[in-house]
Amino acid sequence: MGDRCGGHGVLVATGAWVRWAAGVDGPLWEEVRPVIEARLAAQEQGTGYGSALPGLGARWFCRARPLDLDERDGVVRAGVATLCVEYGVRDGALVACSGDQVPQEVRLRRAADGGYRVVALEEAPDGAGSAAWRRDHFGLFADPDRPDPSAQAALETAARSHFGLPPDARVTDC
Length: 174
What we know:
- Helices cover 24% and strands 42% of the residues.
- It is built from three helices and eight strands.
- Strands 4, 5, 6, 7 and 8 form a five-stranded mixed sheet that branches. A three-stranded antiparallel sheet has the order 1-2-3, with no helix packed on it.
């Protein structure tokens, strides 16, 4: 038997409540995605190995994949799987220095200019509490850790473009 609760479908099965990921509103996602990705990249700046190597000109590039998205009373809650990679340049090659892949819950509110701004960002704790946090925030069936090859490719493309490298520039490690 299904029910609607808090914007998420709920299924009662063998006495357990299961939270289903909500559908993603495409136009809303297109509005909030760049804001989320910019916040993630800004948050990572200065935290990677590449920042210790000034000759690389390293910076972070982030991609978010929606797990669920809900707007209520002017606040958007986005459950996202994120991939952030720190890239620099050396000898005509794109250099991957550091990376982070973390599911997060982002809350956004519409700003005076009509766009959105991030008002809260939360990620799973390290260690023992991580599994419970992921289950509580994304349900049993969402897979925030599923590899996303298209995200990696998009980050490499964005980094090559940013650094003025050709589309086929090789990628090396720091």
